């Protein structure tokens, strides 16, 4: 193998290693910051409360907002928003 061919292979390996490190760092940052997304869309974050059913003291039931898994496991899976 010629010297130029060896240099090309080493350059490709170095560039691939750098690209892999960058991808791992980006994946880490995205996965780390993803936890805040679920908190921002939860029932409690908009002033609602998770109940088994909404009574007349609540304005409406918002099915787009999600109750936490712990509350849903207790049967409290409806997001009730208070009257304004």
Task: Give a written overview of the molecule.
- This protein is α+β, with helices and mostly antiparallel strands and 84 residues long.
- The chain folds into two domains: 1-33; 41-84, no CATH class.
- The chain contains three helices and three strands; from the N terminus they run ααββαβ.
- The chain has a three-stranded antiparallel beta sheet, with no helix packed on it.
- It is rod-shaped.
Compact overview of the structure:
Helices cover about 50% and strands about 15% of the residues.
* Rg estimate, integer Å: 25 Å
Q: What does the main sheet amount to?
A: 3 strands, antiparallel
Q: Which strand-content bin applies to the residues?
A: 5-15%
The end-to-end span amounts to: 78 Å
Total tally of structural domains: 2
β-strand number: 3
Could you say which structural class the secondary elements and strand pairing correspond to? alpha+beta
Shape: rod-shaped
Index terms:
alpha+beta; three-stranded antiparallel sheet; 3 helices
List the helices and strands and how they pair.
Elements: H1 3-33, H2 35-40, E1 49-51, E2 58-61, H3 69-73, E3 78-82
Antiparallel strand pairs: 1-3, 2-3
